[in-house]
Specification:
With 250 residues, chain A is α+β, with helices and mostly antiparallel strands. Chain A has helices spanning 51-61, 121-129, 149-153, 172-176, 183-194, 202-209, 223-227, 234-249, and strands spanning 3-10, 37-44, 80-83, 86-89, 102-105, 112-114, 117-118. In chain A, a hairpin with a 2-residue loop joins strand 6 and strand 7. In chain A, helix 2 (121-129) runs parallel beside helix 5 and helix 5 (183-194) packs across helix 8. The radius of gyration of chain A is 21 Å and the shape is elongated. The N and C termini of chain B lie far apart (46 Å). The chains are: A alpha+beta (250), B mainly alpha (113). Chain B: InterPro entries: SQR/QFR_C/D, Succ_DH_anchor, SuccDH_FuR_B_TM-su.
Chain lengths: 250, 113
């Protein structure tokens, strides 16, 4: 069995620096507050091993190590991390694809709570801000709202998003303005409801997106497309929103 | 009146101006690469021919509008303190206005010559 080398981001603001290789805080800042540092681990390789399994092996060596994970198969979107500079879901990223030592860091741009666990509050607030649900003005029918297969097809590539946050935290525009720019994940969902034949709030949704921030901070950098673990294309969805806006305004 | 600076308008100005800039910029590059005017008289003759004159007249405001949207985006992205941002935006606006008027003056003078 060969060993896998990982260099993992450690930050434990609520505890004394216990590990021997934790750097001493400088005297200017709060001396009780440990600084983040990279810690090296070696774990045993397993056939077909994913990054999540390596992180779990680290946790067996050092139980103070924290990261989020749940389903282990790319469905729940909990274990978004930055591995060797690229955001990914640890559970579906094969170790074999990563150059060693694997640098594992928390999703960029978000406040770190502990080790690889980040505060995604702003990300969820931006998701909430696009009203990610069907809005009907007509009285609701007795049973379901019917939709033709062709109209249903328009939602393919949109509804699959699992809100892991890999895209928005890879987006420079979201790094600069996470409080004002919706970010690729929320905008993909915005288009998902604009594109839905059953939704009746197109005007309100488009009006809410006007202004230089919410939608138009997107400069088509396309980091979102590159990192999406589900292979979705937020940049294209954002382009569609802009086209629809233009259509409705001239 | 919206409190917000424009989003869609700025974006479409940037897109449309980019098309003109690409086409006319390519024409300018070709002229100066293949058959550049040899002296001031030739340059004046080239710049005063009707199509080129109109093209240049359009080129200046379109270039400045494109640059304005671009620089506004950069300042909105990177300059957070509102006082500094407004100061820089004003400075750029004045700079662009001055450049535009200066270029216009040059175009008019070359027509008169």
């Amino acid at each position: 069995m060969t060993a896998i080398r990982l260099s993992v981001y450690r930050y434990q603001p609520d505890s004394e620096p216990s590990a021997s290789n934790a750097p001493k805080s400088d005297s200017e800042s709060d001396p009780r507050r440990p600084k983040p540092y990279m810690q090296t681990f070696e774990v045993q390789a397993q056939p077909g091993m994913m990054l999540r399994e390596a992180l779990l092996a680290i946790k067996e060596q050092d139980e103070t190590f924290a990261f989020r994970h749940s389903c282990g198969e790319g469905v729940c979107g909990s274990d978004g991390v930055n591995a060797n500079g690229t955001n990914c879901l640890a559970c579906i990223t094969p170790i074999a694809d990563l150059k060693q030592p694997i640098q594992v860091r928390p999703l960029p741009g978000r406040p770190v709570i502990r080790d690889l666990v980040v505060d995604m509050t702003q990300f969820y607030e931006q998701y909430r801000a696009v009203d990610p649900y069907l809005i009907r003005k007509d009285p609701l029918p007795e049973q379901e709202i019917r939709q033709s297969p062709a109209d249903r097809d328009k939602l393919d590539g949109l509804y699959e998003c699992i809100l892991c946050g890999c895209c928005s935290t890879a987006c420079p525009s979201f790094w600069w303005n996470p409080d004002k720019f919706h970010g690729p994940a929320a905008l993909l969902q915005s288009w998902r409801f604009l594109a839905d034949s059953r939704d009746q709030a197109t005007d309100e949704r488009l009006d809410a997106l006007e202004g230089p921030y919410k939608l138009f901070r997107c400069h088509s950098i396309m980091n979102c497309v590159e990192v999406c673990p589900k292979g979705l294309n937020p940049t294209q969805a954002i382009g569609r929103i802009k086209e629809l806006m233009l259509e409705q305004s001239v | 009146m919206s409190r917000r600076a424009s989003g869609l308008k700025a974006w479409i100005i940037q897109r449309v101006s980019a098309v003109y800039l690409a086409l006319f910029g390519l024409y300018l590059a070709l002229v100066f690469a293949v058959a550049p005017p040899q002296d001031h008289l030739e340059l004046a003759a080239w710049a005063t021919s009707p199509w080129v004159a109109v093209g240049l007249l359009v080129f200046i405001p379109v270039l400045l509008a494109h640059a304005w949207v671009g620089i506004r985006d950069v300042l909105i992205d990177y300059v957070k303190p509102i006082g500094l941002r407004v100061a820089l935006l004003s400075l750029m606006a004045l700079l662009f206005l001055a450049s535009g008027l200066w270029a216009l003056q040059a175009l008019i003078l070359i027509q008169v010559d």
